[in-house]
What does this fold into?
Amino acid sequence: MPRELRVAVGGFGAIGKVVAQRLDRGIVGLRLAAISARDVARAEAAIAGFAQPVPVLPLARLWEAADIVVECAPAALLRELAEPALAQGRIVMVLSCGALLDNPDLIELARRHDGRILVPSGALLGLDAVAAAAEGGIARVHMVTQKPPPGLKGAPYLVANGIAIDRLREPKLVFAGSAREAARGFPANVNVAAALALASIGPDRTTIEIWADPTVTRNTHHIEVEAEAARFSLRIEGVPTPENPATGRLTPLSVIAALKKLSQPLAIGT
It folds into this structure.
């Protein structure tokens, strides 16, 4: 690895903007090299005030400026960003990890070209413990997600099944099934389920319930794991970002922590 890693941020929304701003303020061993944004003019105006302004590039060209490309874009754009970067041996940090379940060939592409795909913990507490338990064998992984209705609005599964959540007065179970099905039906909401599945027993055996809950103000995940090495449960209540209620404030901070583990001499956690 070079002494200073160049980082490109693909997406300049609730997550990407925070990551880019933090990199611009300075992190030892890391340097913001480029960003990509749907609204190029708006992004260029925003980064004009950065200490070190960087170019705004198309998603498919971010690899040209960077050693690490951080995907903070909608899940449907994952291939556009990741495929060329992995083909050039870059590290791609994927937040839309639900999309990896339908694009497993990206893993083989990374293998062939000495690229790497990294999935940060994001909003998921205890992913290190789950990955460690998987080395000894896991029998069951189940997650219950509760979100305020605005955080689930527009999810493809709700639209396709005509499930209304606008005027709820009490919690409503809107989905129960596998992590794979959840990732397809709620691509902007349950990347945590995909990460959990990839770290444990796979997307078809990992089960999830999703509740639209007007009584909560935070994105809440309760996880139960039955493993040979341990039995444990995890609960996290993430504060949603003001810009996007489907995204928790912890997610961009997780990206920054993961980037630091790549660039600094001391790394804590599995």
User: Anything to note?
Assistant: The chain has a mean pLDDT of 93.
